[in-house]
Amino acid sequence: MNLHRLAAARAATGRPVRVVLIGAGKFGSMFLAQVPSMTGVEIAAIVDLGPDRARQACRTVGWDAARVAATAFGDDAAAAIARADVEVVVEATGHPAAGIRHARLAIGAGKHIVMVNVEADVLAGPLLAEEARRAGVVYSMAYGDQPALVAELVDWARAIGFRVVAAGKGTKYLPHYHAVTPDDVWQHYGLTAEEAKRAGMNPQMFNSFLDGTKSAIEMAAIANATDLDVPVEGLAFPPCGVDDLPHVLRPRAAGGVLDHAGVTEVVSSLERDGRPVFRDLRWGVYVVVEAPNDYAAACFRQYGMKTDDSGRFAALYRPYHLIGLELGISVLSAALRGEPTGQPHQFRADVVAVAKRALRAGEMLDGEGGYTVWGRAMPAAASLRLGALPIGLAHHVRLLRDVAAGEVVRWADVDVEAADPLRASAVAARRQMEAGEGARN
């Protein structure tokens, strides 16, 4: 609760926390919008495939000409990371292979790394976090994004002695969304393709939010950071509003939908017939806890908490998340406290590629939110036994055999040897993690 005071104290010394931002998209731009009003943080450099586009992003979010002129812009991540005046690297590209490379460059240069790139985190985060620990730097999930916010709720609950029954987020979901492609995504957002194009919205990225892939990636990241499980059969996306969280998200033995306590799950803002859920949690995060004794259960009731009918299960939720607007918490925590805002500790959960339709040998997979595959959460041990292809590596790889609709794509089904050097490095990191990290059922 004293992070602002620590930042002010650092600023008073004339040594603000200096940051390299890699990726000036929506998340990065939201962070940049806050920098002028933050105490003790400065942007040393911004790396983007389009440096001029990044400059314009700074102007768009309200930077004045002097701040823009004082910031270095370029497309060379290695050079920016190597700068002697930089303490923290923020990786916000969303590209799994690039994220792994940038994280390792930062760790090798002795810089803290804040990984907005949850796709890279799920692909190899436990390995990267261990490499950072050995190097004496912080590898952190990004505060403001749902995984870090959920990890915070889980930590809060456990620190004060509650058993965590379930934790996760809300989203808009119906079962047929798994088959949606970039061609028909906008109708589910109430937009035309022309309106989305004028707004600069990427159909494949927005489709990854809709088809279940992004939810799976985020729940896997939470599981790896909190030692919770992902459901064995994949996320169920039960329809549920905030008042019903403790009723729905409890074990089946107690009347809920969970196989057991201690899992991640996503709740849908839509009933299965498409009607809106009352008081939905589409933009928020939650944790469901169980009282350790009758006295605590009585306190739930006395202090107005929503509980299940037994009074023993209760939920705490946050209705919104503000992604990049909140990212400064991670930057300051890493630099001033030496602490991450969430961090993977073991390879417990994975996200595997599942065919959206019948795929034929010779086709090229196109990754998250595309036309060919969607990402399903799976326990890491089950993924390894199956030889499943991680969704983060299902980009621009050619199929060697037919894969039926709904079938998990496996390593043996694709030509990984045809990968470019950046992808080959990501494959090697993933294989290293699989060989060296224990996976639990």
List keywords for this structure.
single chain; Rossmann fold; alpha/beta; 6-stranded parallel beta sheet; 17% strand; disordered C terminus; 14 strands; Type Iii Antifreeze Protein Isoform Hplc 12; 4-stranded mixed beta sheet; 441 residues
Written account of the structure:
The protein has helices spanning 3-12, 26-34, 51-60, 65-69, 77-81, 96-108, 118-135, 146-159, 193-198, 203-210, 213-226, 245-248, 294-302, 328-337, 380-386, 421-436; strands at 17-22, 41-47, 72-74, 88-91, 112-115, 139-141, 163-171, 263-268, 285-290, 313-318, 349-355, 364-366, 373-379, 395-398. Residues 437-441 have low confidence and may be disordered. The strands form four sheets. A six-stranded parallel sheet has the order 3-2-1-4-5-6, sandwiched between helices. A four-stranded mixed sheet has the order 8-7-9-10. A two-stranded antiparallel sheet has the order 11-13. The protein folds into three domains: 3-144 and 325-337, NAD(P)-binding Rossmann-like Domain (Rossmann fold, 3-Layer(aba) Sandwich), CATH 3.40.50; 147-173 and 212-321, no CATH class; 349-436, Antifreeze-like/N-acetylneuraminic acid synthase C-terminal domain (Type Iii Antifreeze Protein Isoform Hplc 12), CATH 3.90.1210.10. By secondary structure, it is α/β, with parallel strands linked by helices. The longest helix has 18 residues, at 118-135. The protein is globular. The protein has 16 helices and 14 strands.
